[in-house]
């Protein structure tokens, strides 16, 4: 374990320079995380993970959604504490009490979603949190210039942040992270919102930082980026460390193999596609989504895969009449209300943000989309009919507790998701669009939701399931459309294979 | 044990307000023997009627996650329009009253359209409404009260039915109407949904913009009725009537437990809220507390109500 045990193997060009007492010359490790465990209640998000990081390397951290990447990095950045385990930075054991604590140790994180104030100037954003009571804009601008130069961003320091392109804003965020002599920088899917030109600029910057000796963790779902940029790769799966290796010794297929293959029992179903039936034909185009067509047969389950920003997230909302433009069998879908009247319903990605009215009861949420059908004289709610409708879906979806009057916000995640599904089914849709139908749902509720999806397909409904969970798509779907850069890159058919789906989603096929 | 605690909290959250009112009444009754007399109780109810009617409309707006600051000015405008119509035209009084209600509703709907369809912040829209309606009132009357009204108005203001003043009956009527709207119609349910989560409502096919517009139209409707009652009480239309009435209405709604964040609350709470404010005013009058101090006490009660509501509604999930 001691780094001094292998003195002869060092090929480190800076070996003679460092102070041998502080850091042994052959060891450039700046961060060690040993046997890190993180529990949320009964759920073990990290099951004893080891991770190390060297100065002057880009270390890619890979794994499917829920593998534990973000949890691990949040512990590193001081966002949340570990349940147990040891962390050393620069050879010194640390336990961060907060983000500021981590920053004081030279650790900073660049988040996927920009955490900036759009109405403040670039310079003010750079020094947010360290502004003096009276701000001299001229002095602020002077201090900002070297930082902006470092990230190669040529904008006036006093420009309003919101006037910058997304890629430029990202550079501001990085410049801010660089603000105080960072030793460790974590990038969490930094290219999700960037154009290819902006991505290239970002890579140049990351390479420059590496030359300067900064230790960089790079989280991404895009393997071509990893192979273009990283020196080493660590793969997590289900909260456990699977492998760490030098990129030079690995192929994309090796990485994909390490990423997939969960130990849980997979859901399997018999296909129920009604061949020869009249298909639902969608035409669509939208922001970040190239014009395209999609045909769906009754009884068919079509999966939609792709990384963030690939079009996966955009497709379903576009088909449902939110943003972009869509047609079902040649008829325009003008709004969600119009989509519902044409026999569609969307179970959105984020149930709390867009799926439910948390303050209202289970019953009120279940009946929300069919209230016009439950009224007398088109005005007064028929409370008995509403209660009967609610009972029906509570029973069919095994909602627990089976209490129609309970406030939806007080249910567990899995049961909340069942309410969203119930609301959708109450409208009697012919086509059901499901966006991440089991995100944040416990195992029991998950298999129940799969069971319902299977039943619906059997009854002749057409379903489109967008998911970042490959196992889910492979288990449920008759075919999977993999989106890349706003269009279908490949269409995969039964028998579906996890590795193949992941290889296409991450772009490993393009790298190999 | 946990469940029992939850029940307690729920009960407190539900009836805590009523409890506060009862405690207040008991305290005042023990201090002043004039307080708990039939005539004083009727007095309190009549005093709160105008504010309560406005507050019922305001409740609907606030459940829809909005706010209506224009109610006081609209009250004056509708009162003046009704008075001018009745004194300068030969329209029958019943038609004038009907037109007044329609005009109030329409002006509220214009507020609502700016919020719902143009997407302007409710605070800004109704602040503009506040000054525009007041200005229009002053222009229409040249700043002078309109008097010489037919006796129908004094009947509305001072008449009784079964021994109870008509303003109280009218208040109860608007209360019942608002209650039925919120609890028993699809429209009312949609207001809760839109106020609680507009995006979820939209994805459920609810016409969010139209619902928002409706809430302000309903507020305008309630204000118009309040305007008629007030004009009757004063037996004239005052262009300066209703100044700062929006604050009393919002206070009644908020003290009544309706959440300013939208999606939660109801009209019974607002009635209790208006009663609490009315009882405080009445009690302090009976005790000869200076009206200057009364304002400070009222503000304190509003703050206390908000803090208590916050503590009770903080749910552990």
Describe this structure as you would to a colleague:
The complex is a heterodimer of chains A (512) and B (317). Chain A is of the alpha/beta class. Chain A folds into 2 domains: 27-106 and 181-259, P-loop containing nucleotide triphosphate hydrolases (Rossmann fold); 280-511, P-loop containing nucleotide triphosphate hydrolases (Rossmann fold), CATH 3.40.50.300. Chain A is built from 18 helices and 22 strands. Chain A has helices at residues 69-76, 99-104, 122-126, 137-150, 166-178, 196-211, 223-229, 252-259, 312-319, 336-341, 351-355, 362-366, 383-396, 413-426, 443-458, 470-476, 498-506, 508-511, and strands at 29-40, 43-54, 58-62, 84-89, 92-93, 107-110, 184-188, 215-219, 232-237, 240-246, 280-286, 289-296, 301-305, 325-328, 331-332, 344-347, 375-376, 380-381, 431-435, 462-466, 479-484, 487-493. In chain A, a hairpin with a 2-residue loop joins strand 11 (280-286) and strand 12. The radius of gyration of chain A is 25 Å and the shape is globular. In chain B, helix 2 (38-63) runs antiparallel to helix 10 (208-234) and helix 2 packs across helix 12 (267-286). Chain B is globular, with a radius of gyration of 20 Å. Chain B has a two-stranded antiparallel sheet with strand order 1-2. Chain B is mostly helical. Chain B has 13 helices and 2 strands. Chain B has one domain: ABC transporter involved in vitamin B12 uptake, BtuC. The A-B interface holds A 320, 322, 336-337, 340-341, 346, 348, 353-360, 364, 368-369, 371-372, 374-375, 379-381, 383, 409-410, 423, 427 and B 180, 184-187, 189-190, 192-193, 196-197, 199-207, 259, 263-264, 315, 317.
Number of strands of chain A: 22
Cα distance spanning the termini of chain B: 17 Å
Shape of chain B: globular
Looking across the biggest beta sheet of chain A, what order are the strands in? 6-7-8-3-9-10
At the fold tier of CATH, the topology name of chain B is ABC transporter involved in vitamin B12 uptake, BtuC
Uncertain runs of chain B with pLDDT below 50, 5 residues or more?
A: none
- Total domain modules of chain B: 1
Category by helix and strand content of chain A? alpha/beta
Helix content of chain B: over 70%
Query: What's the number of helices of chain B?
Result: 13
CATH C-level label of the largest domain in chain A: Alpha Beta
Q: Oligomerization state of this entry?
A: heterodimer
**Sheet of most strands of chain B:** 2 strands, antiparallel
Question: Which structural class should the secondary elements of chain B be placed in?
Answer: mainly alpha
Largest sheet of chain A: 6 strands, mixed
Mean pLDDT of chain A: 86
Whole-number tally of structural domains of chain A: 2
CATH architectural name of the largest domain in chain A: 3-Layer(aba) Sandwich
The number of helical segments of chain A is 18
Question: Rounded to an integer, what's the Rg of chain B over CA atoms?
Answer: 20 Å
Q: Helical residue percent of chain A?
A: 25-40%
């Amino acid at each position: 374990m001691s780094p001094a045990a292998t003195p002869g193997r060092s090929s480190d060009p800076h070996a003679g320079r460092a102070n041998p007492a502080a850091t042994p010359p052959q060891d450039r490790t700046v961060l060690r995380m040993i046997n890190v465990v993180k529990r949320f209640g009964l759920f073990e998000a990290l099951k004893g993970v080891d991770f190390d990081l060297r100065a002057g390397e880009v270390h890619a951290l890979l794994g499917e959604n829920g593998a534990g990447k973000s949890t691990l990095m949040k512990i590193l950045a001081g966002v949340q504490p570990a349940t147990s385990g040891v962390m050393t930075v620069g050879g010194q054991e640390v336990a961060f009490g907060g983000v500021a604590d981590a920053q004081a140790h030279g650790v900073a994180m660049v988040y996927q979603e920009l955490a900036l104030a759009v109405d403040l100037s670039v310079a003010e954003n750079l020094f947010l949190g360290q502004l003096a009571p009276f701000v001299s804009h001229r002095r602020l601008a002077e201090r900002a210039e070297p930082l902006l130069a470092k990230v190669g961003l040529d904008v006036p320091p006093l420009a309003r942040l919101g006037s910058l392109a997304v890629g430029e804003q990202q550079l501001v965020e990085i410049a801010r992270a660089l603000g105080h002599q960072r030793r460790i920088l974590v990038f969490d899917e930094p290219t999700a919102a960037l154009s290819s030109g902006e991505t290239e600029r970002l890579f140049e910057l990351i390479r420059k930082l590496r030359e300067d000796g900064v230790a960089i963790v790079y989280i991404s779902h895009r393997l071509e980026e990893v192979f273009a940029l990283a020196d080493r790769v660590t793969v997590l799966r289900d909260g456990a460390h699977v492998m760490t290796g030098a990129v030079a010794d690995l192929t994309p297929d090796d990485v994909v193999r390490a990423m997939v293959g969960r130990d849980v029992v997979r859901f399997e179903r018999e296909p129920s596609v009604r061949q020869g039936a009249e298909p639902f034909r969608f035409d669509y185009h939208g922001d970040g989504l190239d014009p395209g067509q999609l045909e769906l047969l009754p009884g068919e389950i079509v999966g939609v895969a792709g990384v963030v920003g690939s079009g996966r997230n955009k497709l379903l909302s576009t088909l449902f009449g939110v943003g972009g433009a869509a047609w079902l069998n040649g008829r325009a879908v003008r709004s969600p209300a119009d989509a519902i009247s044409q026999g569609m319903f969307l179970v959105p990605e984020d149930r709390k943000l867009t799926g439910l009215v948390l303050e209202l009861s289970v019953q009120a949420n279940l009946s929300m989309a069919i209230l016009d059908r439950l009224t007398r004289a088109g005005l007064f709610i028929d409370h008995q009919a509403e209660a009967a409708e609610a009972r029906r879906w509570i029973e069919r979806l095994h909602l627990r507790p089976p209490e129609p009057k309970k406030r939806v916000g007080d249910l567990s995640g899995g049961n909340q998701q069942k309410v969203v599904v119930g609301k959708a089914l109450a409208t009697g849709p012919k086509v059901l669009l499901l966006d991440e139908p089991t995100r944040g749902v416990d195992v029991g509720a998950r298999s129940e939701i799969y069971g319902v999806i299977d039943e619906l397909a059997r009854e002749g409904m057409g379903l489109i399931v967008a998911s970042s969970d490959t196992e889910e798509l492979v288990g449920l779907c008759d075919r999977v459309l993999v989106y890349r850069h706003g269009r279908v890159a490949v269409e995969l058919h039964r028998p579906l294979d996890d590795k193949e789906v992941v290889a296409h989603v991450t772009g490993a096929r393009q790298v190999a | 044990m946990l469940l029992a605690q939850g029940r307690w909290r729920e009960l407190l959250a539900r009836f805590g307000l009523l409890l506060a009112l009862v405690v207040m009444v008991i305290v005042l009754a023990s201090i002043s023997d004039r307080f708990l007399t039939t005539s004083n109780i009727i007095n309190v109810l009549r005093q709160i009627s105008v504010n309560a009617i406005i507050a019922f409309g305001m409740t609907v707006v606030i459940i829809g996650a909005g706010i209506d600051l224009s109610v006081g000015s609209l009250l004056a405008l509708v009162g003046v329009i009704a008075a001018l119509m009745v004194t300068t035209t030969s329209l029958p009084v019943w038609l004038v009253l009907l037109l007044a209600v329609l005009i109030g509703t329409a002006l509220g709907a214009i507020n609502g359209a700016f919020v719902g369809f143009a997407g302007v912040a409710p605070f800004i829209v109704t602040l503009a409404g506040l000054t525009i309606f007041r200005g229009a009132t002053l222009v229409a009357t040249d700043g002078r009260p309109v008097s010489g009204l037919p006796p129908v108005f004094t009947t509305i203001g001072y008449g009784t039915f079964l021994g109870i003043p008509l303003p109280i009956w009218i208040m109860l009527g608007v209360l019942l109407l608002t209650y039925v709207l919120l609890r028993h119609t699809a429209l009312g349910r949609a207001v809760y949904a839109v106020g609680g989560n507009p995006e979820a409502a939209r994805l459920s096919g609810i016409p969010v913009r139209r619902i928002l517009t409706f809430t302000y139209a309903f507020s305008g409707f309630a204000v118009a009725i309040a305007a008629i009652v007030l004009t009757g009480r004063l037996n004239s239309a005052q262009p300066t009537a209703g100044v700062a009435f929006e604050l009393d209405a919002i206070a009644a709604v908020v003290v009544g437990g309706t959440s300013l964040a939208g999606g939660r609350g109801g009209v019974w709470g607002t009635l209790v809220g208006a009663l609490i404010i009315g009882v405080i005013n009445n009690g302090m009058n009976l005790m000869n507390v200076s009206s200057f101090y009364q304002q400070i006490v009222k503000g304190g009660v509003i703050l206390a109500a908000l803090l208590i509501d916050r503590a009770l509604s903080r749910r552990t999930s």
